[in-house]
Amino acid sequence: MNHIKLFENFINQPLVDLENKLMKYSIPIQYWGTGQAKTSANLLDELDNEECIIKDEGGYLVRYIEFVGIRILYKDKNDVTWLLKEDRQEFKDGRIRRRDMQSSVSEKMKSGENPLVSAVRGIEEELGVKIESSQLRKLRPMYYNGGSQSYPGLKTKYVGHQFTCYLTPEQFVENGYVEVQKDKSTFFKWVKRDN
Fold first, then answer.
1. Longest dimension (CA), the chain
2. Per residue in 125-169, pLDDT tens?
3. Which range marks the domain in which residue 124 is found?
4. Which CATH number is 183's domain given?
5. Domain tally for the chain?
6. Of 18, 81, 101, 170, which residue is most buried, by most CB within 10 angstroms?
7. Model confidence over 24-53: pLDDT tens digits?
């Protein structure tokens, strides 16, 4: 079996099969679902939704993600600029995760998806705000490698597309936004932007 293809099309497979393959590579999944980490079921969802691929690269696993990161801004009537920040994530099991994110909203791209389409979709999914693509301005791409807070022990390589987006007064919610998902809720708040 070609190990590079081992995980690429791992769609609609049983969770136990994924966990067995991860354990064969000594990935410490027994720690997943605790502290800041997500579960192996979350990883299976990412694979099923084509939001990542996992490859064997010389005997160790690497998760590949392409994502968009959007800095959401709002300029009020007093000419003060506000930046939207993720405040926290509250998991259904009671855990709370705080992350210092550079972007207001980060969204994993689907396989073959245009970054602009991903950014519009991400803002709508996470904030419940419909925006026009003309509100987005693309910045430089980002590339980095490392571990994953979500999946400890699984190396991850990231390709990111950065955008900025100014909201209109109709889109602005002073008290922030909440994204509710099946396993957690994510809370966003406004902070004054340092000029």
1. 63
2. 999 999 999 999 999 888 888 888 899 999 999 999 999 999 999
3. 3-192
4. 3.90.79.10
5. 1
6. 18
7. 999 999 999 988 899 999 999 998 888 898
